[in-house]
Specification:
Helices cover about 70% and strands about 5% of the residues. Helix 1 (about 20-25) packs across helix 15 and helix 7 runs parallel beside helix 9 (about 250-265). It has 15 helices and six strands. The chain is mainly alpha-helical and about 425 residues long. The N and C termini lie close together (about 10 Å).
């Protein structure tokens, strides 16, 4: 980020040009910082391919060396009840997969994050978080995964249709309720004490029909340097939260801009819409996984010791099919999410009325997102609008509301000082 100082907008007697204002904002980011964020984000493209190759390679190894056959036999010896067998098998499968993925996860989640100055975790802290995540994942996934195998046994080739019906309800639990009940396992939440920050947020919430009577702060700084916030939960569990990085690193105008965006997600029912959209995408993924399993098992199933599609030992084949489909569907998934994010941006501008705060926040987010991608690059790889797109949107909004923002007013530098 740049040092102290401010940038003056265009002179009062000169028309306000949103594109020129956008370019001015973009030019405030030092070239070295921009190159660093570009390298970090573009490296993510390679990691997406690597993670697919790794997941397919692990699936092949587990099948080729009949590791999951041994896990299946162990689960069947543990209990005669099919559901219990499924719980045991899925839990063991997740444990083995996590161990095999650990070197790659360590590089991506710890080494790389520290290399680019984004993580505050120690090695012990990172491993501690991985263990917590593993335990939560094993409990939830084994209970649900075992139900999946009951459906596989009962419905055979129609299993994916039955699963597609259940997926929206599971996504609702994960997306809507999990942040309220699972997030406190990783971070401490407390009521935000600063009235100067809290009261404008609550005022925005009340003005837009968000049933929140408090704002919570959580200690994300122990893990990361990134700023973030969210409005999570449903019905009586609504919680407006922002992390301590947002409070410490951002001006009041920037905080209001961010929280206006997050309130927009709630008011526009984005969580529910995303559950529907992602459920449809997952239904297609399940259909593909069913076809993929059939095609592969007919050719290699006997060699791998698979009994049929309802065989626990075939889980790596199902996950390989899902991984392959979702990788190819990345532009679709990203575009769905990016569209809702753009809608929340517009809502936030209207709710907070802080276009300059919005623009300077977009530059802070450029610490880990490439600021100015090509058009197709943004479509394929971005699940949020790029910083350039967001700043341009904010400046176009500002151009329509110049009476509220005199052109001669100073624009705060991106470091918030």
């Amino acid at each position: 980020m740049t040092g102290f100082g401010t940038l003056m907008a265009a002179a009062a007697d000169k028309p306000f040009d949103p594109q020129a204002a956008t370019d001015t904002w973009l030019n405030t980011l030092p070239a070295a910082d921009r190159a660093k964020s570009d390298a970090y984000f573009e490296g993510g493209y390679i990691l997406q391919v690597w993670n697919l190759v790794l997941s397919l390679g692990i699936a092949w190894a587990l099948l080729r060396f009949q590791v999951t056959v041994k896990l299946r036999d162990l689960a069947e010896r543990f209990s005669r009840r099919r559901y219990v067998q499924g719980v045991v098998f899925v839990a063991l499968f997740i444990l083995v997969s996590t161990v095999l993925n650990l070197p790659s996860d360590y590089y991506e989640g710890f080494v790389r994050e520290h290399r680019f100055g984004l993580s505050n975790l120690s090695v012990g802290g990172w491993f501690g978080e991985q263990v917590k995540g593993l335990l939560v994942g094993m409990i939830f996934s084994s209970l649900i995964g075992s139900l999946l195998y009951l459906a596989l046994r009962k419905f055979q080739q129609r299993w994916w249709q039955m699963a597609a019906v259940v997926v929206p309800f599971l996504l609702f639990l994960v997306v809507v309720l999990a942040p309220v009940f699972v997030a406190p396992l990783f971070n401490t939440y407390k009521g935000l004490e600063s009235a100067a920050i809290r009261d404008p947020i609550l005022a925005m919430a009340r003005a837009n029909g968000v049933p929140a009577d408090n704002v919570y702060e959580f200690d994300a700084s122990k893990q990361t340097k990134r700023i973030s916030a969210n409005v999570s939960g449903a019905w009586g569990t609504i919680r407006v939260s922002l992390n301590d990085n947002l409070i410490q690193r951002c001006t009041p105008a920037e905080v209001q801009a961010v929280m206006g965006h997050e309130l927009g997600h709630y008011v526009l029912n984005h969580v529910y819409k995303l559950v529907i959209y992602q459920s449809l995408l997952l239904a297609a993924a399940l259909a593909f996984a069913n076809w993929f399993y059939g095609a592969a098992s007919r050719r290699w199933g006997g060699r791998w010791g698979l009994r049929g599609i309802d065989d626990f030992a075939g889980l790596p084949l199902l996950t390989a099919g899902l991984s392959l489909f979702m990788f190819c569907a990345t532009p679709i998934s990203n575009s769905i999410i990016r569209t809702t994010e753009a809608e929340a941006d517009i809502f936030g501008l209207n709710a907070a009325r802080q276009p300059d705060g919005f623009a300077s926040t977009a530059l802070k987010l450029a610490e880990y997102r490439k600021l100015s991608p090509g058009p197709w690059e943004e479509i394929v790889f971005y699940d949020h609008p790029s910083g350039r797109s967001r700043i341009l949107m904010a400046m176009k909004w500002k151009a329509e509301h110049l009476a509220e923002f005199p052109v001669s007013a100073p624009v705060v530098a991106p470091n918030g000082k």
